[in-house]
Fold:
Amino acid sequence: MAFAIDDILEIFVAKVGESLGKQLADDIFNAIFGDLVTKAELQQAVTDIENYVHQEFEDLAVENVQTNVNNALSELSLWSTSGHTDQHRLDAAKDALVSTQSSLTTYTTRYGIDFLRLTFGYIVPFLACDLSCWISNFFYIANSGHSSKQEVLGAYNELTTRIDADLVTLNNAIAQIQDMETESISALQSESTSFYEPAPPPEKGENRVTRAHAWFVVSQKASGDQRTDNGSNVWPFSNEVAARAQLQPQYVQATADVNARNATRVQQIYTPSQQFITAISGFKTRLATYESDRISIRVHTHTEREIILK
Structure:
């Protein structure tokens, strides 16, 4: 199955809207890791996004994020294979994910928020991996039958903390992509000048000559202004109408390309990301009043939480 970044986000939206509890943990975990299980598939999902977001993968910081995500995927797959009994695998996955979040914080501080845009292809798999891990961890602890109230509360606090941190990361990444990647195109413009030049022999005197050219500019913060000009140095046309007419087909195509790229980002990044944010926020709200056969959660305030073991 070929995955794209929006596929990963949409899987979560579909799953978190269904239910709460162990089945949700299984569904999310299996949906992400049952299909997206090889490094090659993950790399393809990352590579696909290069079609509509500028990314840079050479930096050591990016390699660190990539390695941690791959390690967490591997450990979680082994944890799943063990029937969720190999705690060492889960702990190793958690360590890799905590390290990734720490790296994102460190590198964003060091390089600026644009680091999240440049590594967006790895941000989304990380969020999927991270939330799958902590959602699964919470529900397995909450429904294990032998966990203490303190253990359940600790898992709940871990999960909600990760949700908050991951939503901040995604919101910041999306905001930066919108700021840096959104393109605009100027109107098709033209300019002319008139001057006198000696008349060709055998005529005498001077002839008035008009020269013109046309241009347009595609603007984007990430790549800068890209100017298309049909004669800025030589001004080859005798009037502005002719200059604009010659450039009109390129202008029409460039306008269509800009609109298509902007629409692709809306379809494959902004819309699924906003749906993801809304779904996960709603999941957190429902989690605050979660009840199962074993536990009842009551969140009275942002800081006051109660776990009741039944």
About this structure: Residues 5-183+264-309 form a domain with the Delta-Endotoxin; domain 1 fold (CATH 1.20.190).
